[in-house]
Design a protein that fits this description.
By secondary structure, this protein is an alpha+beta fold. The protein contains three helices and three strands.
């Protein structure tokens, strides 16, 4: 069963994304956060409405908020949404 997105679940998701999918987090920043010059990004938090990243642009850390296209129901919805977003972002960058 999937977990509601509590602060503890947010921390778990962020840790996983930052450690195992840093390239995807940077891609979220470039495509959805309108920071195409981002060299790296770190997911700080995730909640049902969006995610907050710290993005490195020209050596400066900038907070970026990315809204989801729907309100997340639980951690499984977050998982599926993050996967769909990275697939869409990769596709957009190839066009």
């Amino acid at each position: 069963m999937a977990d509601l997105i509590t602060p503890q679940v947010s921390d778990r998701i962020c840790k996983h994304m930052n450690e195992d999918h840093a390239d995807a987090v940077a891609l979220y920043a470039r495509v959805y956060g309108n920071t195409p010059a981002a060299t790296q990004a770190k997911m700080q938090s995730i909640d049902p409405e969006g995610m907050t990243l710290t993005v490195q642009v020209n050596g400066t850390a900038t907070p970026v908020r990315i809204q989801f296209d729907h309100v997340l129901q639980d951690s499984e919805d977050a998982h599926q949404t993050l996967i769909a977003m990275v697939k869409q972002a990769r596709q957009q960058r190839q066009e």
